[in-house]
Amino acid sequence: MAVTSARGMRDFLPRDKERRDGVLAVIAETYLRHGFEPIETPALEDLERLHSGLGGDNEKLSFQVHKRGLTAEDIAQASTPEELSDLGLRFDLTVPLARFYASNHGALPPVFRSFHVGPVWRAERPQKGRYRQFVQCDIDIVGQSEILAEVETMLAAADVLDRLGVAGWSMRVNDRRLLLELLASAGINKDHHNTALITLDKLDKIGAEGVLQELKERLPEGFSTEVLTPVLSGVTPGFDPEAIAAVMGGSLAALDAATQLCSWVGVVEDIRGQGEFVWDPTLVRGMGYYTGSIMEATHPNLGVSLGGGGRYDGMIGRFLGTEVPAVGFSLGFERLVEILPTDSVASPTRVALVYEAGSDVSHVMKLKMQLVSTGHTVRLVAGTKNRRALYERLVVDGFSRAAEVDDSHLDAEHLPWRELDA
Amino acid sequence: MAVTSARGMRDFLPRDKERRDGVLAVIAETYLRHGFEPIETPALEDLERLHSGLGGDNEKLSFQVHKRGLTAEDIAQASTPEELSDLGLRFDLTVPLARFYASNHGALPPVFRSFHVGPVWRAERPQKGRYRQFVQCDIDIVGQSEILAEVETMLAAADVLDRLGVAGWSMRVNDRRLLLELLASAGINKDHHNTALITLDKLDKIGAEGVLQELKERLPEGFSTEVLTPVLSGVTPGFDPEAIAAVMGGSLAALDAATQLCSWVGVVEDIRGQGEFVWDPTLVRGMGYYTGSIMEATHPNLGVSLGGGGRYDGMIGRFLGTEVPAVGFSLGFERLVEILPTDSVASPTRVALVYEAGSDVSHVMKLKMQLVSTGHTVRLVAGTKNRRALYERLVVDGFSRAAEVDDSHLDAEHLPWRELDA
Description:
The structure is a homodimer of 422-residue chains.
Chain A lengths: L13 H20 L3 E3 L4 E3 H4 L13 E3 L5 H6 L7 E5 L4 H11 L7 E10 L11 E10 L5 H17 L5 E6 H10 L7 H8 L2 H16 L6 H8 L8 H7 L4 H21 L4 E3 L13 E6 L8 E5 L14 E6 L1 H7 L7 E9 L5 H13 L3 E6 L4 H10 L2 E7 L11 E3 L3
Parallel strand pairs in A: 1-5, 7-8, 12-13, 12-14
Antiparallel strand pairs in A: 2-4, 3-4, 5-6, 6-11, 7-9, 9-10, 10-11, 14-15
């Protein structure tokens, strides 16, 4: 029987691991320069916090950990898994950030820009491209109610995409308040807003006709489909507050939200130029915690989003007991790694020393140490009869030069280097 | 009620996180140069592998994860926690490496130098300095039966300590075969070797008298205490094979093992100089899987070891079904972070821009982006009445310069910089 990693989880071999670490290094360096500060939280959180309603549907996917020292009697007396469990593996980095902020806010600056990277775990049914452990990469600005938070977040995320060499991405943006104004003006009662938003979110999949059909099935009669028509037909007025407000119900509150949206996008475009940001009135970003701006990065080579986020003023403070404004954005790390070109890692500083079995160990090691101390990455390889296979292996592993050494080579500066061709 | 991280686990605030990441970067860069290749394995492994007897006592400390979708009926029918669990969090990186090697050996070079870093979890009773999640940092050479593996491992680990600026460490070394020869020559039967080694390992704590006393209580009569006396009295013959063999029972097998020990230490000392490596005949390194060389780094400022390892030829192949020689060393990352000096992270490239509320967002952001693009780390701070508190906060957070900006500042090259004194 084959020995494999646990179902739905991955090993990373050296070349893949180097590539992932390389992408992560660019992301980290960029976010740090933009003033986001690195934090780390433990993989396990108290189950009660993970299941406190902030994680939406993901709560159901959490891996739960046995209480320690469970006895047969404990098990006999329990009727639900929760009675046997007190900890869970985090399913995202937002719930842990909210808990972290509540635990440590006294030691943090008034406006805290958090950069939070790490694995998360979801007990999803394993399938192509879905894994049960994957890396999330979040930035959040906590304590800033003004649009500066949206602007800083978007400029930092865009800069990461630039530095990684991702071309052709675009950022769909909207505002949750505009959506609520639209629904209200169509005569849809507050109690049905979530149902309506879930349906609206399916526009990509089921089309305008499908959305209208589903709304009619799910909502009580009496709402106006006319009000929804421009939105469903893919109206694109650009970033003009009055035009946006007109599409989204036309209320003063809609004009307010549209003005704010155009204002922060305007600053970003003022700095980066136009063409990357697109107003999408049907962008919903799931249910739940978003209270204002929402954004989602897309890429033509990907069927799924490259990252998303928004303003969620009510949530970070939930564990703290006071409201704290916040804007967050999560880059889809696994998807970024997927779409980036796979560069060869071969480099002139990555060299191999090929020695004969029975060579003087001290001699070979001295050559290695000389090369290490001059900045090389050095692999020792015992010579084998099949030299061709040996050199091919080195090319696969990213080595660009090799030298066959024996006791006559005393100085690493004068070795018989052989260039390895890929 | 205070909101805290889960019991026995830690949050890392930005300054601590930066420090840890900095130490890890030095470790990684050094090991990579020495030819060790980075791998990653998932945090969760099949429980059956974690509990296959390779983890010693640590197996008992594993966090076990509920099977998904447990029902009341599943719980009613179970009598042990294991029946309700199929996955566990890894308690070390050695069992996952053995599993990784078995899963992926076909894609790895014949001699594989693995560099494996990540968190591990142990359900220990939380106490000062003991955490339930901590980082391990392992290197292993798999597939090399010769002393080159010991030499490469020790030179790489010593280089890491050098580059981190750790001074005054020493490496205690021994060989498990010498210990077994010693016990055999004292007339202690194979069945009692483990008991005898556990007692010998307590020499530091209970002294020579204590060890002899405990041996007499635990072993059957008839073994020779005279043979053990030189070892217990702290004999130090240096790295002389015949002298070492004489102390450790005097057999030909002991001479063989002593010759090998002196040979690899000799190569390391030939390159690094003498004085760091010390033969310690009472070094045992726990039970279990070690089959030859064992080593343990100590530091005068630490009561516990700074890292340890050894040769374990029988274990890596356990999941594969064939024997594969291996030497491993694990640096104690948490302890390294503890003993390293806490440098200030203040740097001339870490700057703050202080703006007045109501300033033009676009203007402030343009200044920030100019500084980011010229390699600065930039934090925006809204001006508050209490400027002193504001600047003190920036110093604490590692900022060395700040500028108060308004709409008159158009160019980031000519800002009214103020040096912040720590």
